[in-house]
Amino acid sequence: MPELPEVEALALDLRGRLDGHAIATVHIAAFSALKTFDPPLRALEGLLVDDVTRHGKFLDLEVGGLHLVMHLARGGWIRWRDEVPTLPPRPGGKNPLAARVVLDESSTGSARAPGLDVTEAGTKKRLAIYLVRDPQDVPGIATLGPDPLTDDFTLERFREILTAEGRKQIKGVLRHQGTIAGIGNAYSDEILHAAKMSPYRSAASILEGDSDDSALVHLYDAIRVTLGDAVERSRGLAMSELKGEKKSNLAVHGKAGQPCPVCGDTIREVSFADSSLQYCPTCQTGGKPLADRRMSKLLK
What we know:
By secondary structure, the chain is an alpha+beta fold.
């Protein structure tokens, strides 16, 4: 799933490719992906792309006062095409194409019409596309928590968040978009590994019995550094290179069974119904494996 660093890099790449270019049309191949009807997609035709920005994990193409907003969900991605097919895509079928944004070839100075393919892999279709007048009209954006890389995400703001979350597990706190925007399953694993903290630890316990706030500060710094470093590594990369960059720099996420790059212990996994987490017992849980109810049932 694209998270804050990848979406930030996508926005940067697309900003350079699209700025000042006009949209010729937008084709929808998966009708379930389009979540709005007013204004209609044809309202974008002939309008210039003014900017490309990010709200948490939402990508925002600002086009002539309108906002074409995309949430790529778990299996979504965007691919640049130097030349799009002349015929519009066929809806339905097993094609991963969800939408195609075609640029006005006269605005590119080329005889060919380039564009963007918005795709979604897998059978669970969760990719969402919105055309709105204000990004706050998108329900998921309106309820976002603070962005962890902005100046208003201070240590005190983070303390307030953990206080409000109480006994909730810190892994879930980090992932909840209404609490902190942009962190998903992969980077929450990476942040907790960097902070040497169990994913099962409660938010409140990070504040308890800690007169110098060392645990709070350590986790706050891990958030800012882990995400900031990932953004810097991704900066300037083409969208086709971002997935590989992310995977090659993860320390524990998706690495179950491999040695921890810090201590050499074997990275463990806890499986859930539709996701999993990875962690290092030595670095994060005092050497104790975490209970994996799903695997325990299989072994009975």
